[in-house]
Amino acid sequence: MTDFFKGIAPIKYEGPETTNEFAFRHYDPDEVILGKRMEDHLRFAVAYWHSLAYEGGDPFGGQTFLRPWFGAGMDQAKLKADAAFELFDILGAPFYAFHDLDARPEGATFAESKRNLEEITDYLGNKQASHKTKLLWGTANMFTHRRWMSGAATNPDPEVYAYAAATVKAMLDATHKLGGQNYVLWGGREGYETLLNTDLKAERAHAGRFLQQVVEYAHKIGFKGSILIEPKPQEPSKHQYDYDVATVYSFLKDFGLEKEVKLNIEQGHAILAGHSFEHELALANALGIFGSIDMNRNDYQSGWDTDQFPNNHPEMALAYYEVLRAGGFTTGGTNFDAKLRRQSLDPADLVLSHVGGMDTCARALRAAAYLFEDGPLEAARKARYAGWEREGAKAMLAQPLEAIEKAVLENNINPQPRSGRQERLENLWNHYL
Amino acid sequence: MTDFFKGIAPIKYEGPETTNEFAFRHYDPDEVILGKRMEDHLRFAVAYWHSLAYEGGDPFGGQTFLRPWFGAGMDQAKLKADAAFELFDILGAPFYAFHDLDARPEGATFAESKRNLEEITDYLGNKQASHKTKLLWGTANMFTHRRWMSGAATNPDPEVYAYAAATVKAMLDATHKLGGQNYVLWGGREGYETLLNTDLKAERAHAGRFLQQVVEYAHKIGFKGSILIEPKPQEPSKHQYDYDVATVYSFLKDFGLEKEVKLNIEQGHAILAGHSFEHELALANALGIFGSIDMNRNDYQSGWDTDQFPNNHPEMALAYYEVLRAGGFTTGGTNFDAKLRRQSLDPADLVLSHVGGMDTCARALRAAAYLFEDGPLEAARKARYAGWEREGAKAMLAQPLEAIEKAVLENNINPQPRSGRQERLENLWNHYL
Amino acid sequence: MTDFFKGIAPIKYEGPETTNEFAFRHYDPDEVILGKRMEDHLRFAVAYWHSLAYEGGDPFGGQTFLRPWFGAGMDQAKLKADAAFELFDILGAPFYAFHDLDARPEGATFAESKRNLEEITDYLGNKQASHKTKLLWGTANMFTHRRWMSGAATNPDPEVYAYAAATVKAMLDATHKLGGQNYVLWGGREGYETLLNTDLKAERAHAGRFLQQVVEYAHKIGFKGSILIEPKPQEPSKHQYDYDVATVYSFLKDFGLEKEVKLNIEQGHAILAGHSFEHELALANALGIFGSIDMNRNDYQSGWDTDQFPNNHPEMALAYYEVLRAGGFTTGGTNFDAKLRRQSLDPADLVLSHVGGMDTCARALRAAAYLFEDGPLEAARKARYAGWEREGAKAMLAQPLEAIEKAVLENNINPQPRSGRQERLENLWNHYL
Amino acid sequence: MTDFFKGIAPIKYEGPETTNEFAFRHYDPDEVILGKRMEDHLRFAVAYWHSLAYEGGDPFGGQTFLRPWFGAGMDQAKLKADAAFELFDILGAPFYAFHDLDARPEGATFAESKRNLEEITDYLGNKQASHKTKLLWGTANMFTHRRWMSGAATNPDPEVYAYAAATVKAMLDATHKLGGQNYVLWGGREGYETLLNTDLKAERAHAGRFLQQVVEYAHKIGFKGSILIEPKPQEPSKHQYDYDVATVYSFLKDFGLEKEVKLNIEQGHAILAGHSFEHELALANALGIFGSIDMNRNDYQSGWDTDQFPNNHPEMALAYYEVLRAGGFTTGGTNFDAKLRRQSLDPADLVLSHVGGMDTCARALRAAAYLFEDGPLEAARKARYAGWEREGAKAMLAQPLEAIEKAVLENNINPQPRSGRQERLENLWNHYL
Ligand SMILES: [Co+2]
Ligand SMILES: [Co+2]
Ligand SMILES: [Co+2]
Ligand SMILES: [Co+2]
Ligand SMILES: [Co+2]
Ligand SMILES: [Co+2]
Ligand SMILES: [Co+2]
Ligand SMILES: [Co+2]
């Protein structure tokens, strides 16, 4: 046990009026909404990489955080795990998520890295056994080490492909061992810096085959969780193959994986790809590949992935509304892929950033759920498309063009536009917020 | 015959050193490159909408151009067609492209619009018969009139779907009649302004079925050209279903159309979607759906679709290199979806903007072709992936993960990165420019 | 009197729980906040151009709205004015704002345009006399007509400069006659499309001299209102001279106008310039040139000026907080430079878009005012800079560098960073929202 | 002497047709253009930070480069200096530029850091004495160490201000000792992450006073070089006070420094601020504050500062044309603030990236100079504004508005627009490229 969080007690729900900074104002885990406890709706996870491993660096500056567990050995790795579960306990977080590299020291060889991973995941498993917090997902970091600089599964060098395959196998084994409910692949280096040196077609084929191998292996070991791809358009690469939801779907279709793989959708990545978060969620739902979310927020003013904690509940409400329309989470959850600003040095900052994020999500979920339950938005949507329920409308979809033209001519069809009522629907939303 | 271009003689190739503004410096139609005449490589088309119909308006200002053919009647439509072919003659353009609305007066009813279309396309057909210029593609404008404000095939009102079906049929008939080599669909209103009032899944299904109906009809009438979709991420809509190449491909796969439909890729739309033009071309080629290009340039500093004439040959060379890698155009070509700046009032501006654009493309093609012919870039690309030709590399793709892990462990695989040589390849390019 | 808004009664405050769409939920004009009525804090104005004159066009489509007052004559202009004041009455708007061109028919000559302006402003003056609504500001439209295509005061042609001078004089006279509290200049065409044909230095000098002439004239006629510049970085021009607050300030300083001219700051323009709205407000306040605001919202996903009604009260609260820090409005106010989406066809849309916008602002103001009154954010800000109140801190600013270096060496100064507490301050904000 | 560049001989000019990758194709230092040697026009500088100190990291990955001089001691610092001058010799670079932190080990105290700086700059001075390469500019790194995380001169903590003052003094002394021709200040941390914790007005005042202190000290020690500010809008900070040229100018005016301080303008920063490079150069020239350039290129597709080597000579030609219009460099030069892509591991990459950049600049300069010398663009610009030379035009600027209105009415002035000829001027440019 560390004393890093000394003096910070577990956070309790105290309601919107509390003046206690160390309390939830909106997140009441046991509140029942749409027939389900809030905790079971939101399924919050803490991200090991941001909350335990991030040192405060940015492209123009180095470490700002001083954490007792920073360092390269197994002792520090265990101290980090101790602190992690202390944080989880304080927050009452039902889940966490991690990369291999977040938790274990990098070894000099693959074998050593693997042994380190086994040792630390045994340690984490013991932690889980005595704490509430479970593993939402595991993932392999295949972007930090210089071996990945030109890609993992899409590397021009087949040795790197092999190393990537072994790495994912090891981490999928570890995730399975820890009862992880999902396994995530994020391809930060699966892209290119310049088309000039890139065989896009070959790399795409390798990426597809790699994913098939992962799915086959997950079946073989009996992993019951979901395999998730996390789209991102760029950064660190100039262009990444998993650009956005539609792009990943096109990829899954080509490799016959659209029933096997779902998506982990991140707010900041949606923004970077020129979409809204709710768009990506709605599209994934329409395509049947919605899985989980990485909750954060990007600064609209910055062109890079800022991974901040969410703080605008009206925006988040639009996202949770789409989660509800998709039927809510099954294996997925709300993972805070969000990091402290590098000036936020204190243990209290680490705790309270999560508290604020959880409250923002809770408030957003509640508003979305009430609106969803009451139904006026869905009623308005339905009314707008009501013409398609009229006789002959759907039949037209089966007709040849010339028959439709004939009907237009004979009936002198001259459609008159009707108001889209956007501002009224926005006002409706604001009634619930 | 108009006197709009009075005093402007047909443009001839005079070589890079000429000081004659009214001459081609780089575009020599008869120059043979990679075994093909330059004209047959580039297959330039003039866009009727920008070059004949655009009045100079922008979101904050109205008409600036004074053209004798502006006006709503059939006489003006014919005068416009006369001027069009005079422009084509001056430029020696082998092709043109148009929307129904560019060429015919809008009627009070669908029937009247259709009769107008038939009359004006007969007129255009006569023009074609006596001129060199042929039709690269036709398309239906389903975005300007208020009936389309909420979409065409994706409209909440099935009457609009019907009207759209009849409109496309009419224009596909017209394109077929005129010997058009392609038929293009661009869905500027096939998207949404707000998700709040949108049934994304239903709209996507209607768009898919619509496209199937179009393809079926094209087969029925014996249209031998290509059906092309032109992706664009946004503008006029906040979000369009045909976002980019990957998105359209996912759509084609879902509706079984990936062998039936190809893409018309526009530089400016690639930029708006967060890609480079060459990326979109390379991806379309990798996916087997490359068709044609809309050549223009967007201002990187502006966030909207500026549709300017290209003037940066190094950038365009990257694009034509991908066209060459894709085997060059078959039915497709280089359509100038580019408009004069609204301050460029004079007939000479209209001519010389095209001359500059054609020269930029010619210069770009020549550089790309020489580099492609000499082969050093392809050799470098091949060398980078040479490892995949080594024994066992491809076999690994068929192995299960655990076998690959075993090999990594047994052989203590520890891949060492090799330089990507980006700057050297950029220098190589500059040697050809 | 028109019957356009038939059946829509004046909007009343009914509180947050009302289910009446035609009621204010948050805007209670008489509620006293920080010692001032809410109406006197917010000073709402309706924009004539968007709410009365906009026809629903966008770059890819024409008119969608059908308004009985559309048309070119004086009768329609008066009908428009009647409808305007009916809208103002329904909303209880204390102010409106307009361009000359919004209200009067354009004449064939300057003289005729001026006579038209005088006639319609007499008519508006009579309206004002019998209604609550007063004029917040007037402005001259020097961007729509083709004569302005290359600029107004910055036009290469001095005749256009002269026409602009006469136009502003006429509209400043009209604004003065109507008791306008401000006069606004927005330079949509005061910029360039290409540097290649632009004498940037000369144009800047002309713009500066023009502004001096306007200020001199305002003094001469005894106009007591504020002269305001509205910054915008681009659109319609590729680059505008009044880029953002800092740019306008540099310009005012160069022409000795920083005490004479203030700023009208628009949310959407702040976004287009790469800033947040609150940044621009805070900077204008720091520079002593804060005047008024154009309230709207831009779509972060679109790269152009969408001019939507605001609907995110947490964002707007950040803006009103800066307004409060600046001491609130004096002659300025909250002008809705916001337009209906072009699919929002109905009279009810026109009313309710304003109702939603007003409620969003009211809710934002209330939250900002409570936070400002309670003081915790200002206390935190003060505490962060408390070191500067310590002995010797300010004295250091008067020392030469070598003395400061000496002190650093002698005292072995080694500053230790302290947490910036960003997330905690964001949580604090959310407590008030 | 190191053997890092073993086998790479000094680069010579061999002309455009050479197939030798290790030769200049366009940069011929002795070629005389507009009466000046090309070397004296371009005044190339190599950036120590990118070319010697950068390890290949990015936000998602660590070191990729393996350089024998990496490490924390004085021996490595000297080895680095040896390699630096070997690189300068190979390139024939007339200048270099560096931050204190690039060249010296960071000490545990300010005193130790200063001693280290003195030792290494003595070493660099000896190098300079025996090599051609001189110091273009020095600068202090006040953004990497955690003490700067909340700003240097704008830090809430006056101790950091003191430390910054001492740091700049030490580095200005060092620059002076080495005969540096300029001293640059770039304020990467002089900005904010959130307005919530920021006293913008106080920080701006501190920044202004700091700059005055620096200027005063430079005068005192007889530093004859230029003091330069390098604008950047954001990154690493969310918002930086030295946003762009216009913003810095407003700041200089407020603190009476517009005659004392000039600008170092970077291509990538211009892009990030929403401008073109040539715009920023033209504006600085118009304002009389043009100093030097940081040459690089940003990827238009990425939203962060990519600092790549330039490779598009048509774009760079627009920039050098503005440099020529400003009279060329005096103390300034062309500093490559450009770094290798992190996959470009080899010594040859480091050399050839500079060779390509130098060639791109040389080619650009040559085109710009020929166009400038021939004069057609300046003639066209002059003709466009010729109206202002007509009688009465300039006199109008001295008249009151009412007199101008009178003239408009009496002469029935009705200005007719004339073509801006943008495309023709773009074609003209392409004739020179
Ligand atoms: Co993520
Ligand atoms: Co992210
Ligand atoms: Co197009
Ligand atoms: Co376009
Ligand atoms: Co405005
Ligand atoms: Co606006
Ligand atoms: Co720089
Ligand atoms: Co930079």
TrEMBL record, chains A, B, C, D:
SUPFAM superfamilies, sorted: Xylose isomerase-like
Keyword Glycoprotein: no
Cofactor(s) it depends on: Mg(2+)
Gene3D superfamilies (UniProt xref): Divalent-metal-dependent TIM barrel enzymes
Keywords: Carbohydrate metabolism, Cytoplasm, Isomerase, Magnesium, Metal-binding, Xylose metabolism
Enzyme Commission identifier(s): 5.3.1.5
Localization (cell): Cytoplasm
Domain of life assignment: Bacteria
Binding site for Mg(2+) 2: 266, 269, 305, 307
Cellular component GO terms held in the UniProt record: cytoplasm
Gene Ontology MF term list: magnesium ion binding; xylose isomerase activity
Active-site residues, record numbering mapped to chain: 99, 102
Positions with a binding annotation for Mg(2+) 1: 230, 266, 294, 337
One BP term from GO: D-xylose metabolic process
Catalytically driven reaction(s): alpha-D-xylose = alpha-D-xylulofuranose
Leading EC class: isomerase
Database matches in InterPro entries: Xyl_isomerase-like_sf (IPR036237), Xylose_isom_bac (IPR013452), Xylose_isomerase (IPR001998)
Cleaved signal peptide residues: none
Cofactor note: Binds 2 magnesium ions per subunit.
Major subcellular site: cytoplasm
HAMAP family: Xylose_isom_A
Assembly and oligomerization: Homotetramer.
Family: Belongs to the xylose isomerase family.
PANTHER family: PTHR48408, XYLOSE ISOMERASE (PTHR48408:SF1)
Protein name: Xylose isomerase
Source organism: Fuscibacter oryzae
